[in-house]
Write a structure and sequence with these properties.
This protein is α+β, with helices and mostly antiparallel strands and 397 residues long. The protein has 9 helices and 18 strands. The longest helix has 13 residues.
């Protein structure tokens, strides 16, 4: 089924290109000493190499660190859902658990054997959370709570791919470079050793002023063309906003037993919609589709051309890296004292009071995405600086 096909995107995108595809690639500054001496390559040739990559099998360890510059949210979750940080949802829910990767530092073990077999394990001390896709089955297991999530689909119902891609690596590279246009610089920024392998660095930078993005980098395996390490850096400097990459990788086929799963004795098992009621088609479990949308929403706006269509009623201002979404909520901003103390403290830590021709409002800021909420209920949001948001609001008056 279509949903089962999407389930296969749980693991490989996260391990190989999930964060990379959504954010165009993320990589911190790599040490100059010990960099491998590789043949020269142009940006277009490197993009062609990535496009031609057909990595079907791999296993390894993957580390993801995300630093949006947010204040501590301790106690914030308890202000909602009656004190339940998860809002009452199961700790084994894939949508909930995988979206936790967008904050803090996480170590993952990954394995893949083609489009039908993938496994991702989030390691948290002695506890582990595993997500396994094996044929028609998707399993999630949380060792801390001994809970299992299971979803099943019929492979015979899977539709053929509907999206036509450029026919050759060169055509795809041409499309990428064409999309960059006048707003983006794409270059090769030297070489590096990543997870013990020789790699080239593809560097993507905005040409426009006003973006919060300083650079986006991809470390590309020199032999296979597989993205190995990715970083998104903010103009604020300091730690990268996202630093994600392999610390160990092996492109040999993993053992078949890697993808086997049997619910442990005494585990609580939650079936997806199809497994619970025997329905198919639209009644199939929604976790894969919801998760895909979640990651699109979280990462889709970081770079030009990424992400889906805008929300209904949203106006888009500008283009490229300095695109701003304007939304008229029709509701005035909450007044001080209306929110719980923990929530108000969190908002105050995030916000800067601003004023201009538009009136007054508050800019809620992170190292990447900033949002201006005016006192009359309009919201301006984008991966742009505070001044760019104020200028957009002033221009709207």
């Amino acid at each position: 089924m279509a949903e089962t096909r999407k389930a296969s995107r749980y693991v490989v995108p996260l391990a190989v290109a999930g964060v990379a595809a959504a954010t165009i690639g993320l990589v911190p500054a790599l040490a100059a000493s010990g960099d491998p001496d590789l043949p020269e390559i142009t940006a277009q040739q490197l993009i062609e190499k990535i496009a031609a990559s057909d990595t079907q099998t791999l296993s390894g360890t993957f580390k993801v660190t995300t630093d949006l510059g947010l204040p501590s949210v301790a106690g914030l979750a308890d202000s909602f859902a009656g004190g339940s940080p998860s809002g009452g949802s199961s700790s084994v829910d894939p949508q909930e658990r995988l979206t936790q990767l967008v904050s803090g530092t996480h170590t993952l073990r990954v394995a893949a054997d083609g489009p039908e077999k993938q496994k991702l394990t989030i390691v948290d001390g002695s506890d582990e959370y595993s997500l396994i896709h094996n044929g028609d089955d998707v399993w999630a297991y949380d060792s801390a709570s001994n809970e299992v999530f299971h979803e099943k689909g019929d492979a015979s119902d899977r539709p053929a791919e509907e999206k036509e891609l450029p026919g050759t690596p060169k055509e795809l590279a041409d499309e990428v470079l064409k999309a960059a246009g006048d707003t983006t610089s794409i270059t090769v920024g030297g070489t590096a050793k990543v997870a013990g392998r020789d790699a080239y660095q593809l560097v993507i930078k905005p040409k426009q002023g006003g973006s919060t993005v300083d650079s986006v980098k991809i470390a590309v395996d020199a032999k296979t063309g597989t993205p190995l390490k990715f970083t998104l850096a903010s103009v604020e400097g300091g730690k990268p906003v996202v630093d994600a990459g392999f610390t160990k990788v092996d492109f040999a086929r993993p053992a078949a037993s890697t993808f086997d799963f049997k619910a442990p004795k005494g585990a609580k098992v939650t079936e997806g919609a199809a497994g619970a009621d025997g329905a198919d088609g639209a009644a199939h479990g929604k976790a894969p589709e919801d998760l895909e949308k979640e990651f699109d929403g979280l990462f889709g706006g970081m770079v030009p051309g990424a992400g889906g269509a805008g929300a209904e009623g949203m106006n888009v201002i500008g283009e490229g890296w300095t695109t701003i979404a304007k939304i008229d909520t029709g509701a005035p901003a909450p007044k001080t004292g209306e929110a719980p103390q923990e929530v108000q403290g969190f908002l105050d830590a995030l916000g800067d009071k601003v004023s201009g021709k538009f009136g007054s409002g508050t800019v809620f800021k992170t190292k990447l995405v900033n949002a201006l909420m005016t006192d009359d209920g309009k919201v301006y949001v984008g991966a742009v600086t505070k001044q760019a948001l104020v200028d957009a609001a002033n221009a709207g008056k």
